[in-house]
Amino acid sequence: MSNITDNDGFQQRLDDATRKVAGSAGSTPAESSEKRDEAAAAITSHGVISARPMPTKPRNADVRSREHLTPDEVEKLIKAAGSVGRHRNRDRTLILMAFRHGFRVAEIRKLRWDQINHDSKCTSYTIYIARVKRGTPSIHPLSSKEIRGINRIKKEQQLNSVHIFTSERGGQLSDSSIRAIVARAGRIADLGFPCHPHMLRHACGYKLAADGVDTRAIQAYLGHRQIQCTVRYTELAPGRFDGLWDD
Prior knowledge:
It is a single chain. The protein is mainly α. The protein has two domains: 34 residues, no CATH class; 172 residues, hpI Integrase, Chain A (Orthogonal Bundle). Helices cover 50% and strands 5% of the residues. The chain has eleven helices and three strands; from the N terminus they run H-H-H-H-H-H-E-E-E-H-H-H-H-H. A three-stranded antiparallel β-sheet has the order 1-2-3, with no helix packed on it. Strand 2 and strand 3 form a beta hairpin.
């Protein structure tokens, strides 16, 4: 964008434009519109406003061939997240849970401690899943690996927080911070393409479909209101084509 130069000519034109707009209060709508156009032209012609095009985001298909990760790639991502930074346990636990429960960024960012429950002997843990986008809530079991990571996060949190995943200042992580955690892990894991958090949700759906889980169960697990959103995972399940060729 061009810089505004402070010279007499420009100042005079700017003053004239300002008076024209200010004096249009008693004018007709057509006259007021014309004066405002003149004022805008006076400013634009001096280079205050430029028509520089906004940068466009590349299409996903131009960046990567697919929008999901395989289970092996998720494991590499978790390992990479736990190898760098001051919050290694937090970062790898975040990625693990995003994959296991098909979390969106907003869902894992808002995770609270009161969403986790356990039995009287603390041998069985569950987590209440609150979905966004009007998704249906559900209760998922927690694996032992997740429980260990969560318990360690609780011990490491210096400030009491209602949220599980927090920043150094004790506030909940921002969307951009979660995206940065996943993107950095993807670079370290050297997967060959940039990673974003929603790929973990898709990875969850494709993993369940590949394991032969019923489509309705996947729909309920991911909180889809419409089954059309779930069919995309079963369509790519490799087991559909087993036995088509003898050799």
